[in-house]
Amino acid sequence: MTTRALVITSSILAENGQSNALANRFLAQANARNDIDVTQRDVVKTSLPHLDISELGAWQVAAAERTAEQQALAARSDELLAELRANDVLVIAVPMYNLGIPSQLKAWFDRVLRAGETFRYTENGPQGLVEGKRAIILAARGGQYAGTEMDSQATHLKTMLGLMGITDVNVVYAEGLNMGEQQREAAIKEAFQAIDQLVEGL
Known about the structure:
alpha/beta, globular
């Protein structure tokens, strides 16, 4: 049985990004197996504009009734939703920018977090509609934030994933990457080992 994995990268530093190094480790391990099919999406290289009222409004119009402009606007989200649904595992490689996620990654989430598509509102609160999927967050940070109140990034990501119904989430941290060469090497080594174990378990 083939496992399908969608790997999303979001570093503005391209090949120099530490989060991309984590993603590349996952890709190398996954591609070494015949039973994992990987799709890659770099939300920096193929960036999305900030969500605006025109695009949001296009989602509210029935597909058969959309204008040509509305069809084009809705297609952005529809493409990303189809890609998400087609995969079993969502791998998000993310740097920490000012205690949060890159705006490019937020723009991606803004298109896949759609009421009626990936979640719905009920009298008991929102209910996720994306079932049977898991997520792996590969988080690279210059400082050390895991387990502290300053780690709003991981909490935000887990909350957004949970809104869709993705609650099986593993987080791999590579922290203190700007706190000296020895700390950086140790953190990367530990993160690589964790990634290897996760890929082995897929």
